[in-house]
Design brief:
Blueprint: E1 26-28, E2 34-36, E3 42-44, H1 49-55, H2 76-79, E4 88-89, H3 110-117, H4 127-137, E5 142-146, H5 153-164, H6 171-175, H7 177-180, H8 183-186, E6 192-199, E7 217-218, H9 227-248, E8 254-258, H10 266-272, E9 277-278, E10 284-285, E11 293-300, H11 319-323, H12 341-347, E12 363-365, H13 369-372, H14 399-402, H15 407-413, H16 424-438, H17 444-448, H18 456-469
Parallel strand pairs: 3-4, 7-12
Antiparallel strand pairs: 1-2, 3-8, 5-6, 6-11, 8-11, 9-10
Helix pairs in contact: 4-9, 16-18
The structure holds cobalamin and iron/sulfur cluster (2 copies).
GO cellular component, one term: cytoplasm
Pathway: tRNA modification; tRNA-queuosine biosynthesis
Subunit structure: Monomer.
Length: about 475
């Protein structure tokens, strides 16, 4: 992929004060998901296919005996749960009976069963194909496999980007730099990364709300349920079924699932897996789905063959770069997060730099302008996942109502939503800036009520908004 030479030198330093750094180990990511240094989402196949056969893989419902060190019995559901005690084994009894046995397996019934089970089982489909089928069954729209060493120049770019300070006060980007720059440092045993994309294309142009100055613009990804919660259970189910299939073939393996929940460079890995390319807005663009794509990953110790790389199809287009209201792209393919409204409204805790406030318009949570500008969206279709469909109350909410929210009302207003993760103070700060930009003097009263707010960041934004309303 072409990168503009010398782009790094153009990164703009804003010298804004840095908010407190996050403790290493557990972080909140850009979109609020919890990030742990090494995910606890490990699914281990603690037995070989031969053992599986001996224990009776063909006896569904048979109780599962774990190794003493892991202790106890776990149900299939609990085996994929969180937490140390739930770090899961997949039990023989949880392996669906229709799966073929390990080739050359020890179980005396295998040969006879192969006859009964029909063609294809002597030469079962490659695990790559199984993974692809499972992903489609779980509703993913894009699939590919990347090798763990596929990051190439992206690692160096990440390091240059952080060294430049373009990550602003996302201290967790710096804290996790070495692991993020190489999946093999994150997890030395990893042999392949299954990269998945889920289309969340909006039904309408999300920019329509930008003209309604007394309404708040919430970015498409946050108008519905928190996508982390939608995607992660699906990744777990795929991982579990894939391990069961591998086990039936006598292969022991581990997997970890990620959706923005670990220091993993999801975009360049997805590009290496052929899901699309990183456009000039830096996000992954797909020829079939445009820019509206969530990414998820299943890392595994299974040796899976990588799929092809997609080449860059941006050409001479600059629509996203020119659409950015805050000029957050110092060069094509490079973002300065410190100027990005998504960063300012979601990640940045303190007061928003004065010079950027007027440029934010009524965007109160995230921003979609660069994504929406992409001509490849003409091939996009509206997302199929009901849980990711925008909630009507988040399409164009009244700023006057949102600015009055206290802590409890804020949590109640955004159930199961990623928005809840930024907390009430940061959210009301954003709403006040939008009110300041509305030019609507009738909102002075609700702003004045926030001048005595307990949170300093809210009082600061209220003072600024009042000044703007005149
Ligand atoms: C940090 C982060 C942010 C930050 C920084 C944005 C960014 N572009 O990195 C902020 C808060 C601003 C942000 C915003 C958004 N995010 Co975000 N974010 C992430 C996160 C956690 C890490 C991304 C990362 O590694 N950034 C580091 C930089 C270095 O990476 P990069 O921009 O890809 O840099 C590449 C190129 O730009 C280039 N480059 C960079 N610097 C330099 C320097 C030189 C000299 C050169 C030549 C090249 C070069 O090389 C780099 C490597 O390929 C990922 C999840 C994940 N774990 O990957 C989600 C993720 C990227 N975000 C996502 C989304 C949806 C968004 C928003 C659309 C949300 C919204 N509507 O508000 C916006 C989009 C803004 C934008 N244009 O990027 C999705 C993107 C899906 C996709 N299709 O690509 C992800 C993958 C989450 C997910 N699992 O779905 N995000
Ligand atoms: S999300 Fe908005 S502010 Fe951020 S880079 Fe894209 S257009 Fe610019
Ligand atoms: S808007 Fe144009 S330059 Fe930007 S990502 Fe899409 S095709 Fe590439």
């Amino acid at each position: 992929m072409h990168r503009a030479p010398g782009a790094r030198a153009h990164l703009q330093a804003l010298h804004e004060p840095r908010a407190g750094r996050r403790a290493a180990g557990r972080h909140r990511l850009a979109h609020g998901a919890r990030q742990s240094a090494l995910s606890s989402e490990i699914y281990r196949l603690a037995f070989q296919g031969a053992q599986l056969a001996r224990r009776g893989a063909l006896q569904p419902g048979r109780p599962c005996r774990r190794r003493a060190s892991l202790g106890g019995r776990l149900s299939g559901r609990r085996a994929v749960g969180r937490g140390r005690e739930r770090t899961g084994l997949v039990c023989a009894g949880e392996v669906p009976p229709h799966l073929p046995p390990a080739p050359g397996g020890e179980h005396p019934r295998h040969a006879a069963l192969q006859d009964l089970r029909g063609p294809g089982l002597l030469n079962p489909a490659p695990l790559e194909e199984i993974a692809r089928r499972l992903s489609a069954e779980e509703g993913f729209d894009a699939f590919g496999i990347a090798a763990p060493d596929a990051l190439g120049e992206a690692s160096a770019h990440l390091k240059a980007w952080v060294a430049e300070g373009a990550h602003g006060d996302m201290g967790w980007m710096a804290d996790t730099l070495e692991r993020r720059a190489d999946p093999r440092t994150l997890w030395p045993q990893v042999r392949a990364l299954i990269m998945l994309g889920l289309n969340y294309g909006p039904a309408e142009d999300p920019r329509a709300v930008l003209a309604q100055r007394t309404k708040g613009a919430i970015s498409v990804y946050a108008r519905a349920e928190d996508y982390h919660e939608v995607i992660k259970p699906r990744l777990k189910r795929i991982a579990r079924a894939l391990l069961a299939e591998a086990s039936a073939r006598g292969v022991s393996a581990d997997v970890k699932v990620f959706v923005d929940t670990a220091p993993l460079m999801e975009k360049p890995l997805a590009a290496a897996a052929g899901l699309g390319w990183q456009g000039k807005h830096t996000n992954l663009v797909s020829r079939d789905l445009g820019s509206w794509l969530f990414l998820g990953a299943i890392a595994t110790t299974l040796e899976l063959a990588p799929t092809g790389v997609e080449r860059d199809h941006c050409g001479s287009c600059r629509a996203c770069v020119e659409a950015c209201p805050t000029a957050a792209f110092p060069a094509p393919y490079v973002i300065d997060a410190r100027r990005c409204i998504s960063y300012l409204t979601i990640e940045h805790k303190g007061p928003i730099p004065l010079e950027l406030r007027p440029l934010m318009g009524n965007r109160i949570y995230g921003c979609d302008d660069c994504l929406a500008a992409c001509p490849w969206n003409k091939f996009a279709v509206a997302g199929r996942e009901a849980k990711l469909a925008a909630r009507a109350e988040n399409d164009a909410p009244d700023l006057a109502a949102l600015v009055t929210l206290d802590d409890a009302a804020f949590r109640a207003r955004f159930p199961k939503s990623a928005i809840k993760r930024v907390g009430r103070d940061r959210f009301v700060r954003n709403v006040l800036i939008a009110i300041g930009n509305s030019g609507d003097g009738s909102l002075r009263g609700v702003v004045e009520a926030r001048l005595e707010d307990e949170a300093e960041v809210v009082r600061d934004a209220a003072g600024w908004a009042l000044g703007r309303l005149g």
